[in-house]
């Protein structure tokens, strides 16, 4: 009987030892799994955030390009400013991750033409999963490296210039030419214009009674290029009453013909009103 009890005791002890071994093995597997997941999370975040240090554009290049031209001669009233900000913020929010943005202004001083530093839209914290990304890091980059500079530029661009002339065509061409890759980019391209559309320069001026017909036979017409093939055009038009322009319809007609000549899509127009 004693021998049977000893054998039984020995067998029980062996079972306890085996269970302990299994426990430690399983614990090791779990630990290795967690460690591996940690490395995966770190590498995924690193790969996701891999971009040009200055522009935040993907290493492979932007997926789309958008330029924003501001022609703000007179101050916007509060309602117009709030409308414009909401429209522009929607433009940024609805754009694809990796879209490159630049901004420019219309000014009588040609030295102020051109593009701001190009910035590409990165992923925001809402577009990543905590299971595979460091959400705080992604969110911080989006807010500090993209949104903050964009809002700073918006604040500067929306200030009234008080210019005596409004060379919209010239400033637009300077903006697209100065935007990295815009003229040769093969993906989606977009032009956003904030303007009253009252072109006023030596090349063409509504204030002098010019229209598309007079512009088309002027020496300046020969300088008109075709740089906007397939480009989407969004215009946020600021209303303005000008007594010297007898027929406001010539303004719409001019810009439809201008963008058609440039190869762009038919413009979409949203008016900024206060009433």
Short description:
The protein contains six helices and six strands, in the order αβαββααβαβαβ.
Overview of this protein structure:
The protein folds into two domains: 1-48; 52-271, Rossmann fold (3-Layer(aba) Sandwich). Strand 1, helix 2 (78-94) and strand 2 (99-105) form a beta-alpha-beta unit. It is built from six helices and six strands. The longest helix is centred in the N-terminal third of the chain and has 47 residues, at 2-48. A six-stranded mixed sheet has the order 3-2-1-4-5-6, sandwiched between helices. By secondary structure, it is α/β, with parallel strands linked by helices.
CATH architecture of the largest domain: 3-Layer(aba) Sandwich
Low-pLDDT segments: 4-13, 36-45
- Give a short account of the largest sheet: 6 strands, mixed
- What would you call the shape? elongated
**Quaternary organization:** single chain
User: Over the alpha carbons, how many angstroms does the gyration radius reach?
Assistant: 30 Å
Helix content: 40-55%
What's the average pLDDT? Answer: 84
According to CATH, what is the topology of the largest domain? Rossmann fold
Distance between the termini: 104 Å
The helix/strand class is alpha/beta
CATH class of the largest domain: Alpha Beta
Strands side by side in the biggest sheet: 3-2-1-4-5-6
Secondary-structure element pattern, one letter each: HEHEEHHEHEHE
